[in-house]
Design brief:
It is a single chain. The chain is α+β, with helices and mostly antiparallel strands. It folds into two domains: 90 residues, no CATH class; 236 residues, BirA Bifunctional Protein, domain 2, CATH 3.30.930. It is 41% helix and 21% strand. It has twelve helices and twelve strands. It has a seven-stranded mixed sheet, with helices on both faces. A three-stranded antiparallel sheet has the order 2-4-3. Strands 9-10 form a two-stranded antiparallel ribbon. Helix 1 runs parallel beside helix 4 and helix 5 crosses helix 10. The longest helix is centred in the first third of the chain and has 35 residues. It is elongated, with a radius of gyration of 41 Å. The N and C termini lie far apart (87 Å). It binds 3,4-dihydroxyphenylalanine (DAH).
Length: 347
C-alpha cells in the first residue's frame, strides 16, 4: 500500500510538471492550482489513503506527502513568475526606449489677453491702479449713477442683457467709475479691465467683448490732461509718432464727450499705402479706439463727490479693437473661434 501511495504521489509531481507549461494565463494557472492543491484537489484525494495506513507506514507516507506539496507549489509559482514576466514584456512590445520623448505643446496667451496686458502695463506705468468689479451688475451702477435714469434715451445706445429687472450683465466697464468713487475719496487714478456684454451679434459685434476703463479725479484736472495722458499712452502702446484726435460726441456720464481716434497704424495717417487706399482706416487716416470725456458733475453728485472742488476725466477703450490694430487682425470673429492655427501665432 505504501509503495503504490508513494508512486501515486510521484505521478502527481510528474503530471504537474508536464502540464504547467500549458497554463498560458494566470487564470489557467489558478485552475491548475485548484486541480492539484485545492481542498478537493488531487493531492487532497491521495491523502485519504494516508489516514488508513498503519503506524509503520505513516511517517514515510506523511513525509512524502509534504515533499510533494512543496514541489507542486514550487512548480506552480515558478510558472506564475514566467507568465508575469511575459506579460510585462508584451506591454513593452513595440516600445522603442531610444525614441525622443514627446514634449507637451506650450500654450500661448490669447491676443486679447496680450493686448489687455500691454494696455494695463502702459497705464500702470503712468500711475493708474488696476481695479476690478463684477460682470453681473446692478442697474444703478451700470446706468443710473452714470447719469442714465430709467427711460433715459441713452440706454438705447447699449443693447442690455437683463438678469432681472434691476440686475444686468454690465454693458460697459464704466460702473467701475461708480464703484471706485463710492468707496474712495479723491484723488483717484484707476483703470478697470474686463468683459462686457451686449445683446448684439454680427460680423463686427460679439455679445461679449472687452473694455478698459480709466478714471482720474483730482483738483484742476482738465481736458488738456486727458489729451496729454492719451497721447503718452498711445505713443507707448503703438508707436512714438501715433497722433490722437478727439471727435465731438455724446456720453451721458461725460461732458464734454469725445470719440477717441488715433492716426491709422497701417498707413500712418496718410490714408493710402503704396498708392492704394488704406484698408484699415478706409482712406480717412484715423481709426477709433474708444470714448472719453470729462466726468459729468451729475455723476460726481451721485457718488458724493463735490463737483465744485474736483474735476476728472474718463476714457473707455475697446480691447478687441486695440488688438486688431496692434496685431493686424482683420476679422473680429477670429478672437472667438479659438482656431489653434490663429492662436499659436501669438506664442
Ligand atoms: N462706456 C462707454 C461705452 O461703452 C465708453 C466710454 C465713453 C467710456 C466715454 C468712458 C468715457 O469712460 O468717458 O460705450
Amino acid at each position: 500500500m505504501l509503495k503504490s501511495f508513494l508512486e501515486g504521489l510521484d505521478g502527481l509531481t510528474l503530471e504537474c510538471e508536464a502540464r504547467r507549461g500549458q497554463a498560458c494565463s494566470l487564470k489557467d494557472l489558478e485552475a491548475l492550482r485548484v486541480e492539484f492543491l485545492g481542498r478537493k484537489g488531487k493531492l487532497a484525494g491521495a491523502m485519504v489513503a494516508l489516514a488508513q495506513m498503519g503506524p509503520e507506514d505513516k511517517p514515510a507516507a506523511g513525509k512524502k506527502a509534504n515533499e510533494v506539496k512543496t514541489a507542486l507549489t514550487a512548480l506552480l509559482e515558478s510558472r506564475q513568475a514566467e507568465l508575469e514576466a511575459e506579460s510585462a514584456q508584451g506591454a513593452l512590445a513595440g516600445f522603442d526606449p531610444s525614441l525622443p520623448g514627446r514634449r507637451p505643446a506650450p500654450g500661448s496667451l490669447h491676443p486679447v489677453t496680450l493686448a489687455m496686458q500691454e494696455i494695463c502695463e502702459v497705464l500702470t506705468g503712468l500711475g493708474f491702479e488696476v481695479v476690478a468689479g463684477p460682470e453681473v451688475e446692478n442697474d444703478w451702477n451700470n446706468f443710473e449713477a452714470l447719469n442714465m435714469p430709467p427711460d433715459h434715451p441713452a440706454r438705447d445706445m447699449q443693447d442690455t442683457l437683463y438678469v432681472s429687472e434691476n440686475i444686468v450683465l454690465r454693458t460697459h466697464t464704466s460702473p467701475l467709475q461708480v464703484r471706485t468713487m463710492m468707496s474712495r475719496k479723491p484723488p483717484v487714478a484707476v483703470i478697470a479691465p474686463g468683459k462686457v456684454y451686449r445683446r448684439d451679434s454680427d460680423i463686427t459685434h460679439t455679445p461679449m467683448f472687452h473694455q478698459i476703463e480709466a478714471l482720474l479725479v483730482d483738483t484742476n484736472v482738465s481736458m488738456a490732461d486727458l489729451r496729454g495722458t492719451l497721447t503718452a499712452f498711445v505713443r507707448q502702446l503703438f508707436s512714438p509718432d501715433t497722433k490722437v484726435r478727439f471727435r465731438p460726441s455724446f456720453f451721458p456720464f461725460t461732458e464734454p464727450s469725445a470719440e477717441l481716434d488715433i492716426s491709422c497704424v497701417l498707413c500712418g495717417g496718410e490714408g493710402h499705402v503704396a498708392g492704394a487706399p488704406c484698408r484699415v482706416c478706409k482712406r480717412t487716416g484715423w481709426v477709433e479706439i474708444g470714448g472719453c470725456g470729462m466726468v459729468d458733475p451729475n455723476v460726481f453728485r451721485q457718488v458724493g463727490y463735490d463737483p465744485e472742488t474736483v474735476t476728472g476725466f474718463a476714457f473707455g477703450l475697446g480691447v478687441e479693437r486695440v488688438a486688431m490694430l496692434k496685431y493686424g487682425i482683420g476679422d473680429l470673429r477670429m478672437f472667438f473661434e479659438n482656431d489653434v492655427r490663429f492662436l499659436e501665432q501669438f506664442s
